[in-house]
Amino acid sequence: MSDDYANAVVLLFTTDGIGKTDDLSLQQQLTNTFFEFLSNSNMIPLAICFYTDGVKLTIEGSPILEHLRWMERRGVDLIICKSSLDAYGITDLVRVGVVSSITNIIEAMWKADRVITL
C-alpha cells in the first residue's frame, strides 16, 4: 500500500451489499450505484476490505466484479479475509483482490485517515 495518500480512506464491506435489509437485490443495487459514483467521480479509496458476508462481493457471479476490477487497476488494494472465505467454502471462487488475513485488514485500517463501513 502506498503511504502518499492525503485523506486516505479505507472502505469495509461486511455484508454482500450496502445497507441492512433482507432485500439482497436492493443491497446489491445500492452497491452497484455506489461504485458507479466512485468510478465517475475519481474518488479512489486506499483500500477496500471484505470480511464476513462481504467476501461474497469478490467471487464469481458478484454484480460488482467489474467495478472492483476497475478499482484494482487504479491501484486500490482489495483485501479479502481468508477465514471468512474458508467459513463459506468459497475461496476457489474469488475473482479479484488478494486473499489475506484479518491482520492485513487491520493494517489497512490503521493506515487510513478514515475507515467507512458500508
Descriptive notes:
By secondary structure, this protein is α/β, with parallel strands linked by helices. It has one domain: Hypothetical Protein Ychn, Chain: A. It is built from 4 helices and 5 strands. Strands 4-3-2-1-5 form a 5-stranded parallel sheet, with helices on both faces. Strand 3, helix 3 and strand 4 form a beta-alpha-beta unit. The longest helix has 18 residues, at 24-41. The chain is globular. The two termini are 21 Å apart. Residues 1-5 have low confidence and may be disordered.
Q: Which CATH class is shown?
A: Alpha Beta
For the record, give the distance between the C-alpha atoms at the N and C termini, rounded to a whole number.
21 Å
Overall geometry: globular
How would you write the strand order of the largest sheet?
4-3-2-1-5
Helix content: 25-40%
Poorly predicted parts: 1-5
In the CATH hierarchy, the third-tier topology is known as Hypothetical Protein Ychn, Chain: A
Question: What's the CATH H-level homologous superfamily?
Answer: DsrEFH-like
What pattern of helices and strands is seen along the backbone? Answer: EHEHEHEHE
Please work out how many helical segments DSSP would assign.
4
Largest sheet: 5 strands, parallel
Number of strands: 5
Question: Roughly what fraction of the amino acids lie in strands?
Answer: 15-25%
